[in-house]
Structures are given as structure tokens and as C-alpha cells.
């Protein structure tokens, strides 16, 4: 197995610049989580990787070579707008899709039986897809992506709408495929899940990759956070401590960022807390992926604001992709 390389993809739809030099790699056996606000460019990137959409510029490579049609047939793809035939039986449909990817009739049937069993839908093989619940349709959709034993998995929001058991089944399958050497890339808005499952994460904003790396690596780019539980501390107690930035107050707990360049700031904030009364907790906190995501997205907004002098504006560039609010409005 080899590495999937997404190299400087650009894509414009009319006046909307959907991708700007989008680049990342997914190595053999790696699970890569692709996260970003609505309209950030995830689906566009995945469609280009699959070859159903052409980029304006840039390239997708597999094993160092541009992806050709034969290699694209080796991708297992789960589209966002699920692509099943509603009035076809689950088993027949999976056999048909496997045959389309070149499997013999016998191999296609074996693969269908295997994946319906692994995904817990073997008892539904004889049912039309439309008779299944949405979660079970999604399991069929994953089976459809896997039935030809792909060398690469590209999955657009595979976890949306799944119950916790189905999430576990799906996670297990992705881990298993990765363990077999398949590069797995999937998009999701469920950041806790991405954090649990992925080796590396890419945070995309307005068509650009703004952060990419392992979760620990990304955490290390953030200022250290502390939580202080001081029940008698009055509001604003930490505001004047040098080198300390109060992120938020939550009842008796205060969440703080400490400037690493400011030597002794942690001890100063502890002293300030003790001066107010008892301190029940004083703990360093590792930011979750959700916090990292908020930080990356909002700090970019702040930078854009500062550059444009506007409030929440994306600047004067008329080709800039819409903000989340514009997209969801
Ligand atoms: N066929 C299209 N025609 C015009 N604009 C499009 C088209 N497809 C996508 N866009 C625009 O391109 C941008 C990127 O969209 P894309 O669907 O790739 O985002 P996404 O990250 O997958 O979003 P979501 O999380 O909501 O699925 C958005 O501004 C979207 O409105």
C-alpha cells in the first residue's frame, strides 16, 4: 500500500472559490480526519480525489503517480448524498456494485456476504434498500464502499446519523481496514469521534488547510490551559495576573491560558487563587479537538477582521467562499 497525496488543489464554482491550494497526504494504514465548517471544501476535495470532479489546478497522486481511471476504481467512496438504488435488494445491489468493480460473480457474492455480516445487516439482504432505517442504509452504503476490497477509503461523513452501536461498528471497520494498510480519509463534524479514531487531522477553513497534524502535535501549538476551582473567588479575580488570560468562568471554575513566555505565571495565578480562599482544583488542561477547532476557526476570523477592519467580514475578495452563516442561511 502507498500514500495518497492531495497536492495544491484549486477549484472555483462560478464566483465561489471552493478550494485554495488544498494539500495533505494520507499514508498507508493511516486514518485521517478531515474537519471544517459547513461549506469549507471537504466534499469538493473528496470528489476531486475520486475523479468525479476535475480541479482547476493541482493533482491527486497515489504511490507517487497521478491517479488514473484504473487506480480510481480501487477507491472505496462513500458519497455525502448517499448513492444507493432504493428499490433494489441490499444483497443484489452489493453484488452488482462489486461486479462493476471487476469482481467475478462468485467473489462478488462472497464479498457481499462478508460485509453484510460484518456490518450487521445480513438479515436484510433480501430487503429493498428503501425499507431500511437511515442508519441501516448507511451501513449498506459503507458495505458498498468496501465490497471491492479497495486500496483507499474516502468517506464523506460516514458517521452522521448513526446510533452509538453503529458508530462502534463503523469505527471498528475503519480501524481494521487501516490495520490492513489502507489509507482512510473521512470527513466528520463529530469531533470527539475524530479525536478518538484518527492518527492525523486536517482542519480546513474557507477552502484552505489551516492546520494539519497529529492531535498531540496540534495540541502542542496551543497555549497551555489551566482550570482553577476556587469557590470563594470573586468575579474577575484572575484578570490582573500578568501573563494570564481568562478564557471563561464556569461557576466556581475558571479556565485560563498561561503565556509560556511569562515565567512564573502559573504560580502567580495559584497564589492569587489561594488569596481568595480554598482552592479545590488547579490542573493543566489539554484542549479537546473541539476547542482546537474553535480556536483555529475563530482566530482566523479575528485575523481576517483585523486585516479588513470589518466585524466578521471575509474581506474584500469577492471570490472568497461564504462564511458558515452565509452557507447555512
Ligand atoms: N456544485 C456546486 N456549485 C456551486 N457551488 C458549490 C457546488 N458544490 C459546492 N459548492 C460551494 O463550494 C464550497 C465548498 O463546498 P463543499 O460541499 O465542498 O463543503 P463541505 O466542507 O463539504 O461542507 P459541509 O460540511 O456542509 O458538507 C461551498 O461554498 C459550497 O457552497
Automatic annotation (TrEMBL):
Chain segments carrying region Disordered: 300-329
Pfam families given in the database record: ABC_tran (PF00005), DrrA1-3_C (PF13732)
SMART domains: AAA
Keywords: ATP-binding, Nucleotide-binding, Transport
InterPro entries: AAA+_ATPase, ABC_transporter-like_ATP-bd, ABC_transporter-like_CS, DrrA1/2-like_C, P-loop_NTPase
Matches recorded under PROSITE patterns: ABC_TRANSPORTER_1, ABC_TRANSPORTER_2
Highest taxon in the source lineage: Bacteria
Residues annotated as domain ABC transporter: 4-231
Membrane spanning residue stretches: none
GO molecular function, one term: ATP hydrolysis activity
Similarity comment: family membership: Belongs to the ABC transporter superfamily.
Protein name: ABC transporter ATP-binding protein
Species this chain originates from: Oerskovia douganii
Amino acid at each position: 500500500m502507498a500514500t495518497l497525496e492531495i497536492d495544491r488543489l484549486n477549484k472555483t464554482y462560478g464566483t465561489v472559490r471552493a478550494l485554495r491550494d488544498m494539500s495533505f497526504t494520507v499514508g498507508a494504514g493511516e486514518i485521517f480526519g478531515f474537519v471544517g465548517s459547513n461549506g469549507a471544501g471537504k466534499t469538493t476535495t473528496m470528489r476531486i480525489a475520486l475523479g468525479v470532479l476535475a480541479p482547476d489546478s493541482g493533482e491527486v497522486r497515489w504511490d507517487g503517480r497521478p491517479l488514473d481511471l484504473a487506480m480510481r476504481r480501487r477507491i472505496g467512496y462513500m458519497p455525502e448524498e448517499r448513492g444507493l438504488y432504493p428499490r433494489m435488494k441490499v444483497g443484489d445491489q452489493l453484488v452488482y456494485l462489486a461486479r462493476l468493480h471487476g469482481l467475478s460473480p462468485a467473489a462478488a457474492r462472497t464479498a457481499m456476504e462478508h460485509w453484510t455480516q460484518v456490518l450487521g445487516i445480513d438479515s436484510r439482504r433480501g430487503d429493498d434498500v428503501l425499507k431500511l432505517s437511515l442508519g441501516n442504509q448507511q451501513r449498506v452504503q459503507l458495505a458498498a464502499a468496501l465490497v471491492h476490497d479497495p486500496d483507499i477509503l474516502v468517506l464523506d461523513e460516514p458517521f452522521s446519523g448513526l446510533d452509538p452501536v453503529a458508530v462502534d461498528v463503523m469505527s471498528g471497520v475503519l480501524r481494521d481496514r487501516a490495520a490492513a494498510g489502507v489509507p482512510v480519509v473521512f470527513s466528520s463534524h463529530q469531533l470527539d469521534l475524530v479525536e478518538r479514531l484518527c492518527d492525523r487531522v486536517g482542519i480546513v477553513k474557507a477552502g484552505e488547510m489551516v492546520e494539519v497534524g497529529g492531535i498531540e502535535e496540534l495540541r502542542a501549538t496551543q497555549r497551555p490551559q489551566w482550570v482553577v476551582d476556587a469557590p470563594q473567588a470573586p468575579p474577575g479575580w484572575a484578570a490582573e495576573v500578568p501573563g494570564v488570560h481568562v478564557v471563561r468562568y464556569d461557576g466556581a471554575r475558571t479556565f485560563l491560558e498561561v503565556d509560556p513566555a511569562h515565567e512564573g505565571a502559573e504560580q502567580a495565578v495559584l497564589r492569587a487563587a489561594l488569596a481568595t480562599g480554598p482552592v479545590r482544583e488547579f490542573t493543566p488542561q489539554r484542549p479537546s479537538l473541539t476547542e482546537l477547532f474553535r480556536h483555529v476557526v475563530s482566530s482566523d476570523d479575528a485575523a481576517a477582521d483585523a486585516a479588513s477592519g470589518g466585524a466578521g467580514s471575509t474581506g474584500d475578495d469577492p471570490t472568497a467562499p461564504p462564511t458558515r452563516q452565509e452557507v447555512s442561511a
